[in-house]
């Protein structure tokens, strides 16, 4: 029988392993700093050794390191992966053994191939000590090591096989000789492979099928790789997937061979000359069963998964630094990617996402992040569906308000993979400080925040919905959850800008000075209620009197008779005194869509925040 017996398949391609190990006394395992990304090529915690007296376990390590008998003080030769080996034996080492096993990621159990009693103790003593009472998914992987193979003519594999069948945590059995170096490198290869590419999270050997978490992860990867959303991976999609994960596309004949293997072994794995989800899952199951689970791990790690089959923080939340007074916007790479994603899920090609299509879009997310308020935050079609314009507006809003969540969402969509960039950070632009914009009198920003301030009942919510083209009648028909943000695009000097309206809660108002910060302030008052103007005047004098933030007073319900103030300055006189444009009269109670003129003025004021512009604006509006 072959001197190496793997649970899945015989040994293959071990020479590709980046395995160079140094003695523990020369190379302690370094603790990974928080700033370093997790890399399977640089992270290999301890290997524990359980041996029985007289089995020469002390010879394995020097033989592997130097391919010669142990010579004290000989220097290490270390590359890529550090392995800390902790040998122990007998009763004297029992307490130390338990401590080391608790730290270990893999345990090598050494037995004497010439003494069957040492094999029996694997079942009765050593495995219970290592994994006794542990749940299946949390058991430490074990490598069985049959030493002194140079002293026997036969093989111990037939005796070992029942033990491997009994204990699913046994990854491989290797017969070797520390005397003549037989299979020593292979032994350490399999020990490292058990940690770097563990079988347990992927495959249930008793059920002979992928574990549920692995199936979910691979299903998500399939759905992401299915770029035309037809539930089949075409040759082009398979080659893109292959190149993304492994660096090179498959040769045409190799591609046909893969599909032929799937076709012969499944009833529905190949359809329309492409690979279905079941075919994709079968292929990965086959890799694992043939001992090539590093292939599946390469796929999983390329798509951001860790050893627990969870998406890593490094993948989902790459570090992006946003200095004070700067903002975040999506760049053209992000908009191109998002448009492709929209078109992928717009199956009926009507230019809008139905609720079912939106659900399909979010199928690669752990949960749907957008609720019903979405349809009152962005523009929709006449049928109330999410248009491409509204879709991009919503992403722009998320990027501006919570860039970290935006990066996380782009990660779920596979932005780094399908945009061929290092991370989602390349999808975002961090603007320069607003202070510099004020000094120069212009800005390169494309997204602006307008805070809408006013007393209760003055029409703030209606003003926000009017920005989406809804008059009072349309708003009453589509009454839904109250929203505090709306976003739309506005043309400013021939350039498209995004304007975000944020309704300030009258009860919360501004707890601190920074709460009033924005690109432009819109102070709303009801022409039929003079107290509402007094409220706006008070807010202006308290938070905006310094002139750093452009302000516009807007008189709502302009279709109704205006009430005169009993005393003090009129709204027009107040604005004149403070060198502000006169109040802009607005109503959304007409027959058609509300006039967008006021929103254009707000966007223009945000785009040109200089004092010079304020005076020019005042002259033009007088």
Describe the structure.
With 622 residues, the protein is α/β, with parallel strands linked by helices. It has 4 domains: 4-197, P-loop containing nucleotide triphosphate hydrolases (Rossmann fold, 3-Layer(aba) Sandwich); 209-314, EF-hand (Recoverin, domain 1, Orthogonal Bundle); 319-430, Orthogonal Bundle (Recoverin, domain 1); 449-621, Rossmann fold, CATH 3.40.50. It has 23 helices and 20 strands. The radius of gyration is 34 Å and the shape is elongated. The relative contact order is 0.07. Homodimer.
| Average of per-residue pLDDT values | 82
Identify the CATH architecture of the largest domain. 3-Layer(aba) Sandwich
Strand content: 5-15%
Report the helical percentage.
Answer: 25-40%
- Helix and strand composition category: alpha/beta
The domain count comes to 4
What is the approximate shape?
elongated
What is the CATH homologous superfamily assignment of the largest domain? P-loop containing nucleotide triphosphate hydrolases
Biggest sheet features: 6 strands, mixed
Strand order across the biggest sheet? Answer: 1-6-5-4-2-3
**Number of β-strand runs:** 20
Stretches with pLDDT under 50, minimum 5 residues? 9-45, 49-79, 616-622
Count of helices? 23
Question: What is the CATH domain class of the largest domain?
Answer: Alpha Beta
Please state the CA-atom Rg, rounded to the nearest Å. 34 Å
């Amino acid at each position: 029988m072959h001197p190496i017996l793997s649970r899945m398949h015989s040994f293959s391609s071990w020479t590709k392993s980046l395995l160079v190990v140094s003695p523990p006394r020369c190379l302690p395992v370094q603790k990974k700093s928080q700033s370093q990304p997790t890399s399977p090529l640089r992270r290999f915690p301890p290997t524990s050794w359980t041996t029985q007296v007289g089995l020469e376990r002390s010879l394995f390590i020097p033989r592997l390191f130097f391919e010669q008998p142990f010579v004290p003080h000989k220097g290490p030769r270390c590359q890529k992966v550090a392995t800390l080996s902790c040998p122990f034996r007998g009763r004297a080492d029992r307490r130390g053994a338990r401590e080391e096993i608790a730290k270990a990621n893999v345990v090598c159990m050494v037995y004497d191939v010439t003494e069957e009693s040492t094999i029996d103790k694997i079942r009765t003593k050593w495995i219970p000590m290592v994994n006794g009472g542990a749940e299946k998914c949390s058991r430490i992987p074990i490598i069985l090591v049959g030493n002194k193979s140079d002293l026997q003519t036969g093989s111990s594999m037939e005796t070992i096989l029942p033990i491997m069948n009994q204990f699913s945590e046994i990854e491989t059995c290797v017969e070797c000789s520390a005397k003549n170096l037989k299979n020593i490198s292979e032994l350490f290869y399999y020990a490292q492979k058990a940690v770097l590419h563990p079988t347990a999270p992927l495959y249930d050997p008793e059920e002979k099928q992928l574990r549920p978490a692995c199936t979910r992860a691979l299903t998500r990867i399939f759905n992401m790789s299915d770029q035309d959303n037809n539930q089949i991976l075409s040759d082009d999609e398979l080659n893109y997937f292959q190149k993304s994960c492994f660096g090179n596309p498959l040769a045409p004949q190799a591609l046909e061979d893969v599909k032929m293997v799937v076709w012969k072994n499944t009833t529905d794995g190949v359809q329309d000359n492409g690979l279905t989800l079941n075919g994709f899952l079968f292929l990965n199951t086959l890799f694992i069963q043939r001992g090539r689970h590093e292939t599946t791990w390469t796929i999983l790690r390329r798509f951001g998964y860790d050893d627990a089959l969870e998406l890593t923080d490094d993948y989902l939340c790459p570090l992006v630094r946003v200095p004070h007074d700067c903002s975040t916007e999506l760049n053209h790479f992000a908009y191109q990617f998002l448009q492709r994603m929209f078109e992928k899920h717009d199956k009926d090609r009507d230019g809008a996402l139905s609720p079912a299509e939106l659900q399909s879009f979010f199928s690669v997310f752990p949960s749907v992040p957008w609720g019903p308020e979405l349809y009152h935050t962005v523009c929709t079609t006449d049928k109330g569906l999410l248009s491409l314009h509204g879709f991009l507006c919503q992403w722009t809003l998320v990027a501006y308000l919570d860039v970290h969540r935006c990066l996380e969402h782009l990660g779920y969509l596979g932005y780094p993979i399908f945009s061929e960039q290092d991370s989602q950070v390349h999808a975002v632009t961090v603007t320069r400080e607003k202070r510099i914009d004020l000094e120069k009198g212009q800005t390169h920003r494309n997204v602006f925040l307008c805070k809408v301030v006013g007393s209760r009942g003055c029409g703030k919510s209606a003003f926000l919905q009017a920005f989406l083209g809804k008059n009072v009648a349309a708003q009453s028909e589509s009454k839904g959850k109250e929203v505090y943000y709306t976003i739309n695009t506005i043309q400013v000097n021939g350039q498209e800008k995004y304007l975000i309206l944020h309704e300030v809660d009258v009860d919360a108002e501004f707890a601190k000075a920074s709460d009033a910060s924005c690109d432009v302030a819109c102070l709303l008052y009801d022409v039929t209620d003079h107290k509402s103007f007094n409220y706006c005047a008070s807010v202006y004098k308290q938070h905006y009197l310094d002139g750093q933030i452009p302000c516009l007073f807007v008189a709502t319900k302009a279709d109704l008779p205006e009430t005169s103030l009993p005393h003090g300055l009129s709204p027009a006189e107040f604005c004149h005194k403070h060198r502000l444009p006169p109040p802009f009269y607005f109503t959304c109670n007409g027959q058609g869509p509300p006039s967008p003129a006021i929103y254009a003025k707000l966007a223009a004021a945000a785009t040109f925040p200089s004092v010079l512009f304020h005076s020019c604006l005042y002259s033009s509006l007088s």
